[in-house]
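Lecture 7 notes. Example A: sequence first, then its structure tokens.
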Amino acid sequence: MKFENSKDLFSFKNLYWFYIVLMGLVFTFLVPPFQKLDEHTHYNRVLSISDGQLFCGTNKQFDINAGEYDLQNEMQFFEIVHDYEKKFPISLIHFKENNREDRVPLGMNACLQNFVGYLPNVLGIFVGRIFKLPLLSFYLARLSGFLFFIFCMYLSLNLLKGNIYYWIVVLFGLFIKVIFQVTTISYDVVQLSLTPLFFSLFIRLVTKSNNEKRDRFLLGILLIVNYVFVKPGYYLLILLYILTFKKYSKKEVVNVIIFLCATFLSFIVYYFTSRVGNFNGDDFQMEFLKTNPVFFVTVIYRTTMESLPRYINEMIGSFGYNDYDLSSIVRYLYLIFLVNTFINLAKKGKKERINFGIIKVGILISMLIGTYVVLHFAMYSVWTPVGKNVVDGVQGRYFLPLLPYIFLIVIELCRRLNKKTNIQKIIVLLIFVIVIVDISVKIYKRFYD
């Protein structure tokens, strides 16, 4: 199966884009307004940015147009969001002109994120305001974010044209949860849209780049913009820049130092232009962790054991406020497709393979594990009740930006294993072992535990 230009209407490339565009339109227009996680909060932030309020004032507040703010109540957001039996009345979809000029003040929670992550959504609000129709502005904000994702995906696939690792970008675009999130009014739009671009530039630099200086410069700029200003908490992924060097001569070391200095200065700018708050309203959690540092290790372990299946399910296909998801058969089809792709990629493209030593592989894996820990630490610090033995508030969608690098590690692991034995045999053996262990545990819990 090839992903290339073809006169065939039913070529894989045409089917791929048809699927992404159609799925994106479904999530943009079929899902009722605000019926996506935290969309109402991000909508308020987008409105304030559209009014030129890029930063919150010293009182940690901004204000937005009352007519646009009331759209949440008109769409019965609060009545529907946590009541599965409550359905959305189609009659609510009407484009009422907004002539109100009074303002509604909003507090700290809406001030937490930098304006950079909302720029694609802001464009849709600008266009909708021409017609003074808040509901039109809302849908256009969703649509403009999705179009930004399409643009980034197109660039990413073209950057890896002829490289076997473009299949990882293809897989990323096929994830339904990714498409769901990029059709949401949220800063996730920018992060998830830039993720395939980071990966494509990274792969070009560690395999073969026709313009190494340009690719490294773009990667550095985009990493800083995204992981400093758009979505703090993924700081360790900035180290991808360092992994792109094949050797570390004096010139490369200077390059790395300049990049790290630019990153540090960006953090300073972010610190003084963003208002970061504590949802718990106090510092008791941090004081607790200072006196019980080892306790957090057990918290991470317990949370992982209890929540890992939920994280995976939410990454693959849990939607809305995680109150509806894909059917089991569809999830199984996704799994089969992934396994088949991993096997095929493990056998192909020896010339384009990345050539990482054990140290770089270890750094890449450590970055992913470290990011997992940092995200849990952040949510434990600001969202979880003091002293609780699990982390609250972590969602599977938080790990979507890590998927391309997880895929890369899995594929390279399969390739190395395939040199020594047939990878299909290993997978069949693993499936047999998993089935036997799973049913044995179920029997034990049912009759003996």
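Example B, a different protein, same format:
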Amino acid sequence: MTDFLAKIERLFAPIEGWGEFRPGSRHAAVAFILYREDGRWQVPFVRRRADLRDHPGQVALPGGGVKAGESAWDAARREVTEEIGVPAEKLVPLGAGELIYTSVSNFSVVPFVAHIPEPVPPFVYDKESWTVCSRFRSTGCSTTARGESQPPRGDSGSLRTRRASCGA
């Protein structure tokens, strides 16, 4: 594991130590996945089709509902496989973030952070639900004396998006 991934891992709770879902809420899990391509860190995202009833056009991390008897981490891994075609066993867990509750949909969502070691398999998105698989790549950032992240000079932000060749 690189120093960067080790630092990321220290920022989050252990995979099974994230806490509990909000009582009475719908349970979900998502995965923020880091991988290297062309010497830069990348993160895949998906966009829901505009004609879907639930969340049309939404850009999201791979993830979804937690099934009865399934752990949140197992749900996130399953959803990554279903949505972008990455085999669950390729994901190396780095940790779990704080639970996010969305009152509009009554979802409690646990965000996980994972890494895909090289070689990274091609992404193949689920065309029934998604229109495109995109990725954001890091262009680097620096830290000010107050600890605020700043984009590199001449850059409008620390993340850039580009359409990935996510397969057919």
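Note on Example B: The two ends are 31 Å apart (CA to CA). Confidence is low (pLDDT under 50) at residues 140-168.
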